[in-house]
Amino acid sequence: MHMAGVRFLQGNIACAEGAIAAGCRFFAGYPITPSTEVAEWLAQRLPKVGGVFIQMEDEIGSISAIIGARWAGVKAMTATSGPGFSLMMENIGFAAMTETPIVIVNVQRGGPSTGQPTMPASGDIMQARFGSHGDYAIIALSPNSVQEMFDLTVEAFNLSERYRVPTFLMADEIVGHMREKVVLPEEVETFTAPLSKKGARYYFKPDPKTLVPKMQVFGRGYNVHVTGLTHDERGYPATNDAKVHARLVRRLVEKIEKNADKIIKVEEHHLDDAEVVLIAYGAVSRSALAAVRELRKRGIKAGLLRLVTLFPFPEKLLAKLARRAKLVVLEMNLGQILREVQRCAKRDVHFLPKIGGELHTPREIVKFVEALK
Amino acid sequence: MKVVADIPSYVKCRHVCGASLAANRCFKFRLNVKDVNEEEYFAPGHRGCAGCGCTIAMRLALKVAGKNVIVTHATGCMEVISSPYPETAWRVPWIHVAFENSAAVASGVEAALKALGKKDRVKVIAFGGDGGTVDIGFQALSGALERGHDFVYICYDNEAYMNTGIQRSGSTPYGASTTTSPPGKESFGNKTFKKDMPHIVAAHGIPYVATASVAFPLDYMEKVKKALSVEGPAYVHVHAPCTPGWGIASEKSIEVARLAVDSGMWILYEIENGKSRVTYKPTVKKPVKEYLRMQKRFRHLTEEHIDVLQRYVDERWAEVFGED
Predict the structure, then answer these.
(1) Residue B22 C-alpha, separation from nearest chain A C-alpha, in angstroms
(2) Would the CB atoms of A57 and B138 count as touching at under 8 Å?
(3) What whole-number distance in Å separates Cα of residue A169 and Cα of residue A114?
(4) For the structural domain made of A267-370, what CATH number should be given?
(5) Residue A327: phi, psi to the nearest 5?
(6) ipTM, interface predicted TM-score of the complex
(7) Are A5-184 and A267-370 the same fold in CATH?
(8) Beta strands B275-278 and B269-272: pairing type?
(9) What is the distance of C-alpha A372 from the center of its chain?
């Protein structure tokens, strides 16, 4: 079905193939640089694997369509960049409230507003976490290579299905447009949210362990009531009941937080004896790894913590590292994951931001770390 | 809504000349090449492709509007090529807003001018491409028309999202190849017909709606002039070729645009206070195939699909011009 074997692919195309591998058979999107290739590729590929591609009239339409498609029983995805991501915010909250498993790819560019359409940035990280109104939790992943554009897209689908939560692939223009060698496996492990028994009265009753309710699908005998209003375990609106609201919204957050250890993935490089720990994600983490190697050559015990999962945030690990090493956060924004690190570290955190559309160079990072001494 | 070629002779121009609209004798808006403003408000040196049809639409509209105009602009090709760092092609005040709200921002500008008592002296033009008008900007445009703001909306229609690399829009014609309507085993290209935006706009009951083509510059400018003169919202939908998007040579741009009109793929008319009038009737109706053949985006089409398009055009032609 999806392309397999050793290939030389663009990141956005690897992402599209990852979606097909994960079982995605519906894509709704709207052209926006630098994510358009995901849509263009799927416009060609989905009809050939029995799927459907539709181009919507805007990004509000795109995310609404994939929510509709998932409730009709098809795994669905959309891809966008900053301005389109902003338009999607209301329905991201809706997907969180209705526990709709969908995948949203954001190939980030420089913002705010139209900003730098063809340049990379990581400016939408906090928007992914807190962009819609109200309390909720999501899962966000950050790929740093074309291989991961494939792997993490599959992972994003599996996580969204397992926890019934909108899941973000927070790529950037560099990984989206870069071309690299990739190895695409014949078979990938996929997960689909299990369906509940038909005719049940409490469709939104969660599993007591995972806190995730089973899924239903329109048109297969489930007369499920899906609403963005505060709802009880039957799915019926209960907007004036403080207890119902508190129980629902707490669970939406806790189903992610309590399962955080199972969700979170990080990459640790030379952390065992590190006195300075660089914290990076996305394309920057590749510069950071080169910098760590150079620093080690120069006799500085540096290490790298690369965040693969941005949210839920690896709080415990950060708190542990903060007790024994200096922390340096590297980001292509003016301080977003920095705030998360500061919150967990409870000590001074060093910060090297870079915006404007250029990646940190290893030399810049080495210079910055050496100056800390 | 039906466009009719023949307007009863009793329908008079509501402007000073009072001439019969049937004979197209309204002199107030007749333009002669020698009357055209020599000043350029859309400056040369922008980054439009050689042969770009849309830049012609920008340039001519501003020639008519003169310098007392404020322009709002949706995201799109024309926004990008007219404002390359660190320059601008706009010699009038210009604001680029998000993709979806050129008309909404124009509403705000117009209302503020009214509040300041400056409305008589300053015109407001909102530009949007076909995607920014018929798709994502549709809601903002509809709202602005319904509220009755005194502004002119000009949609430059190059029939796809050219800025992001040729994706289909609601205004892409049947059968056209774009990156999101790729022809192949599973598809013959764009499956839908062009959204009839001028009539959707006219259904709002606004005073003036017109279609135009960059191949008919005087006709287009007359329409912009009329649009600027009416009180309330006016809409001009100008057909403008995109050389890379349509797959045509730079020097063929105007030829293709003219052939679109001569084949009936695009019809030039105006709807003034609900009364429709065709402003140009081709002397010889060219076959659609001739128009399609000039462009790479239609090259894959089989006879069967060309027939579908020809029938579609014939029906509209008969509706507008009568059987002939």
Answers:
(1) 38
(2) yes
(3) 20
(4) 3.40.50.920
(5) -110, 135
(6) 0.89
(7) yes
(8) antiparallel
(9) 32
pTM: 0.92
Query: Phi then psi for B183, rounded to 5 degrees?
Result: -75, 150
* Bond into A112 cis (ω within 30): yes
Cβ-based contacts of A43 with chain B (< 8 Å): 179-182
Confidence (pLDDT) at B33 = 80
Q: Which of A36, A83, A87 shows the shortest C-beta gap to B167?
A: A36
* Predicted local distance difference test score (pLDDT) of residue B11: 47
Residue B94 has pLDDT above 70, yes or no: yes
Nearest to B278 by CA among B317, B323, B239: B317
Q: Over the stretch A229-287, which tens digit does the pLDDT of each residue have?
A: 999 999 999 999 999 999 999 999 999 999 999 999 999 999 999 999 999 999 999 99
**Per-residue confidence band for B17, with pLDDT thresholds at 50, 70 and 90:** very low
Whether the per-residue pLDDT at B144 is higher than 80: the answer is: yes
Residue A160 has a pLDDT of 98
Tens digits of per-residue pLDDT, A134-192? 999 999 999 999 999 999 999 999 999 999 999 999 999 999 999 999 999 999 999 99
DSSP state of B184: B
Does the domain at A5-184 match CATH 3.40.50.970? Answer given as yes
Instruction: Name the minimum distance, in Å, from the CA of A84 to any CA of chain B.
Output: 9
Helix (H) or strand (E) holding B198: helix B197-202
Question: What are the DSSP calls for A129-197, one per residue?
Answer: HH-SSSS---EEE---SHHHHHHHHHHHHHHHHHHTS-EEEEEEHHHHH-EEEEEE-S------PPB--
A43 has a chain B CB within 8 A of its CB: yes
Helix A11-22 to helix A146-163 angle, to the nearest 10 degrees? Answer: 30
Q: How far is CA B237 from CA B32, B148, B172, B297, in A?
A: 22, 18, 14, 22
Cis peptide before A34 (omega within 30 of 0): yes
Which one of A33, A58, A87 has the shortest CB-CB distance to B164?
Answer: A33
CB of A321 closer than 8 Å to CB of A272: no
Q: How far is B139 from chain A (nearest CA, A)?
A: 11
How far, in Å, CA of B189 to CA of B176, rounded?
Answer: 5
| Exposed / middle / buried, residue B130 (Cβ in 10 Å: 0-12, 13-18, 19+) | buried
What are the boundaries of each domain within chain A? Answer: 5-184, 267-370
The residue-averaged pLDDT of A61-79 equals 98
Give chain B's mean pLDDT.
Answer: 91
pLDDT tier at A303, thresholds 50, 70, 90 = very high
